[in-house]
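Hi there,

I know you've been waiting on this one. I reran it after we fixed the sequence typo, so this is the corrected version. Both the input and the resulting structure follow.
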Amino acid sequence: MKKFDADLTNAVWRRSAASEKAGAAAVEVALLDGGGVAVRDGLRPDGDVLFFTPAEWDAFVGGAKDGEFDL
């Protein structure tokens, strides 16, 4: 695994409106300069952050739209 350090001080984190109620589990995403995406646990904002390249994120979103991850 590659270690990636980024300054997320000014990152704008977004979550689904469906998870806006207090205490709801939520994944938060932030768009990064250069087109990458950072992902974190909204209940643990000081926890670990996953970073994805634009191509990785596009593949994930495309797979989600195509139903690849439906349970």
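Quick highlight: The chain has a mean pLDDT of 87.

Best,
R. S.
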